[in-house]
Amino acid sequence: MSSSVNKHVLVPIGEGTEEMEAIIVIDVIRRAGAQVIVASVENSLQVKCSRGVNIIADSLIADVESQQFDLIACPGGMPGAERLRDCETLERMTIKQRDEGRLYAAICATPAVFFQAKGLMDGHRGTSHPAFSDKLVDQSLVQERVVVDGNLTTSRGPGTAFEFALSLVKQLYGAEKAQQVAGPMVMYPYEL
Amino acid sequence: MSSSVNKHVLVPIGEGTEEMEAIIVIDVIRRAGAQVIVASVENSLQVKCSRGVNIIADSLIADVESQQFDLIACPGGMPGAERLRDCETLERMTIKQRDEGRLYAAICATPAVFFQAKGLMDGHRGTSHPAFSDKLVDQSLVQERVVVDGNLTTSRGPGTAFEFALSLVKQLYGAEKAQQVAGPMVMYPYEL
Ligand SMILES: [Cu+]
């Protein structure tokens, strides 16, 4: 986990993505020094999120399909989770990510609505938003705020998004970097 | 604090605004049912935030100056806090807001960089980001994560932004509404 190596991270967004979950993941991972590409699964770079905030993505998803990412991190929100699920490019990319042993992650509705629907939870424990977590096949860790199981990380909602993002920083760069990023953000007390 | 009355909230943003602080405040307060206007203090609606996320504001600040808001809530980030401070329209609006006894609020660098510089902290206790809070004249509550003093609310950084936003919901709509909004977000444990 050399922090001198530049890490590349994909954050896909679509109509109805939860903007807090997207932005917290993008911002926190950029604070760690990673190159984060925000990619729209829609036909336009401009995406209207779940509470009406309009964000301009860096790329269309098709334009980054050939790139290799150290992490694919999917925000939640509805219908955002369905928009991500229904994007065949993102599905291919995430299955390849899983098959090649690199990190992939989802929060809120997306573990249940996208990842489980496409077999990406198979053999993995995880969690999802309380309104969706009862649909997960493996219920053993659904009460946890963040679950890391192998190369899959899942989490529950906007209120767990900082913990989710900092867990991803820790997995990419190590605990020391995660602490460095957490400090100036004035995090609430929790176990990193 | 009748929740049947529609509340109007202004969230100003500028180049280098901390996107997590802006989006958390906008999103959480919209979840409570308020009409939130995101207003750019720049010449364009599209604003590049502190970690490179491009957000499209709803209005230019000049176009909403004549409107009355129940709350003006200012995000932090640098140089975002300076961009808000240097906007004369926003300065006039916030001074009027204070003088007429309505709610105004700032987080992160903004209490020190904007509010104190323009006299908006005078006679008020508050806090600011740890890198700026030693500059506040009144040091009595700077260690607090959120300070409500009269109609002024201040807070410290991205990691306190949910608490800040939910405190504003509580002040606008009451504690019950704040609890209703907090629940589905899967908040970390803290005293609302
Ligand atoms: Cu969500």
UniProtKB/TrEMBL annotation, chains A, B:
Pfam families: DJ-1_PfpI
CDD domains cross-referenced by the UniProt entry: GATase1_DJ-1
GO cellular component term, pick one: cytoplasm
InterPro entries for this protein: Class_I_gatase-like, DJ-1, DJ-1/PfpI, Prot/Nucl_acid_deglycase
Keywords: Repeat
GO biological process, one term: glyoxal metabolic process
Keyword Phosphoprotein tagged: no
Record's keyword annotation contains Acetylation: no
Annotated ranges, domain DJ-1/PfpI: 7-171
Family: Belongs to the peptidase C56 family.
Name by which UniProt lists this protein: DJ-1/PfpI domain-containing protein
Organism, as annotated: Chlamydomonas eustigma
